[in-house]
Amino acid sequence: MRKQALSGILGVLAALLIGALVLLLQGFNPVVTYAALLQYSLFSTSGFAATLTRSVPLVLTGLSASIAFASGPANLGQPGQLIMGALGATLVGLFVRLPTGLLVPLCILASLAGGALWSGFAALLKRVFAMDEFIVTLMLNFVADYFALWVITYPLFDTSASSPMTRPISMAAWLPDVGGVNASVLVMVLATFICWLLMSWGRSGYEWRMTGQNALFARIGGCKVDANYVRVMLITGALAGLAGGLMIMGGPHRFVKGLGANYAWDGIMIAVVANNGILATFLYGLLFSMLQQGAIGMELVTAVPSEFIDVLQAIIVLVVVAGRVSLNMVFDKLATRRKLREESKE
User: Fold this and answer.
1) Sequence-ordered list of residues with C-beta below 8 angstroms from that of 29, at least 6 positions apart, any chain
2) Model confidence over 189-212: pLDDT tens digits?
């Protein structure tokens, strides 16, 4: 755990240094650029609140991918599952009339169900027709995207709007701000804690991790591999769907074209750089959110194109992932030498 944390910190620092070199080569001051980035993402009240809110879909889709990859299934359907979760919350928010205390939980359940049903369809195709979920979940992303576009363009189109979008959901389904931060952040933190408990201390999490490392060993050891596969697909789909539902309920409170943006794909990238760790996924989600939120202010102050953040994120992924194995080998060698020296003294 310590080695992973240290290798991650060193990797991020090395990536920031490489990013600074890129800025210098382009004629920009890296100190001023990074200062502006931090100012607009962490060191202002509005920027910090926006960073936390932006992290919600990144962390939740990252958790979805992390749990799936650590458990065996190659679930790459987070973008589609996010969209279906957002549609579920939108439908409930539009057509159900209940007080806030009942409507908010119902919308959250609808978003969980939407994502779970979409991933469950991929799991069904895997179990019945032996179709590879890697391909199926990827293709279902396009189906979800175009289906949602049809829904918001025709049956649920807001006639007063100039572009595809639904009417606003009931105000009773809006998530309030708590201390200047949207309540969706609290739901995200709670979901992260539950995932950490499940994967670190739960029996199911142990079986899933064993299956992800060696499915044959897990099956021989008594794990219900097939049933666990379905459970993992449903849970990871639900997490991605929750991300979409919270995006609707936290704002813009309606389903608009392009709602998911690249959040889910970034979440998958976060899972890769976090090596499928729950806490690491949470922290990298906050880091990437900070970079994306600070990009706008950075461009305004320093004229550095906001696309630089895309480059910086890519550098972080490459350096951390590529350096993880090498650093671990170095740490193991140093630990071995230290142990040998201690034994020789005895």
Assistant:
1) 23, 302
2) 999 999 999 999 999 999 999 999
Find how far residue 73's CA is from the centre of its chain. Answer: 17
Distance CA 345, CA 206 (A): 40
User: Which spans in 96-166 are helix H?
Assistant: 100-129, 133-153
Residue spans per domain, the chain: 55-294
The angle subtended at Cα 52 by Cα 204 and Cα 107, nearest 5°, is 60
Write down the pTM of the prediction: 0.95
d(CA 203, CA 54): 32
Q: How far apart are the first and last CA of the chain?
A: 29
Binning pLDDT at 50, 70 and 90, where does residue 47 land? very high
Q: Which of 7-11, 25-29, 309-313, 321-325 has the lowest mean pLDDT?
A: 321-325
Q: How far apart are CA 74 and CA 40, in angstroms?
A: 36
Report pLDDT for 346.
63
Q: How crowded is residue 25: how many other Cβ atoms within 10 Å of its Cβ? A: 8
Dihedral angle over CA of 28, 31, 32, 38, nearest 10: 130
Rounded to 10 deg, the angle between the 225-250 and 100-129 helix axes is 140
HSE-CB for 328 with a 13 A CA cutoff: 12
Average pLDDT score over the chain:
94
